[in-house]
Every structure is written in C-alpha cells, then in structure tokens.
Amino acid sequence: MLKHDNELRQELIESLRGGKGTTLITHLLEKEQFHNKGRLFSHIKLKPGTSIGYHKHEGDFEGYYFLKGKGTYNGNGKEYPVKAGDFTLTEVGESHGIENTGTDDLEFIALVLFE
Asked: Where in the chain do CATH 2.60.120.10 domains reside?
C-alpha cells in the first residue's frame, strides 16, 4: 500500500486534551488498520504557543518522535525541553502534555499502542 500526502486524512482539533490553540493531525494509519493493537499513528503539527493538554494514559502508551521545532514536554509533572531528534515515551498509567514554546512549528510523530 502507498498513500500520497494528499490522500492522508487531516484533522484540525481545537484545544486538544484541554490544550491551547488548534492542533493539525495527519493520520498515517486509520483505526481499522491497527487490528485492535493501537489507536493513533500520526504526524502532529503545533503552531507556536499551541499545546496538547496534560492527560493520563490508561490501557495504552504513547511515544513522540520530534521532527522539527522546539517545545516543552511535561512527563508526569516534570518539564523537559524537546527538539528535533528527541523521543519521549509515556507508559501505561503515566501522564503527559506538550507545548510549542519555540518560534517555528513543532512537528512530531505520535504512536499510541494498547497495553
């Protein structure tokens, strides 16, 4: 299977998980393609000042691989600076959030798999 960029579903979500601004999500896989093993594999873009609100993972875990920009990642209440090439992992039962604190778009790949 091959999907060209214009064939990937894009979604704009306002205040994602209680965050600030509008998040652009480009879905790389759709729900039925996970075969009940996960729920998200996407390219996410946050404009400067935009965030994904702090939230807890129950029954799943999530990794972010940063492609572009700079931001602040909140993992279990502790804040870390992140940039292109960094990777974060939020395990089952843990909490996280992310904010673009830079001057350029913050872009990353997000993957959520079930426990």
From this structure: 9-55
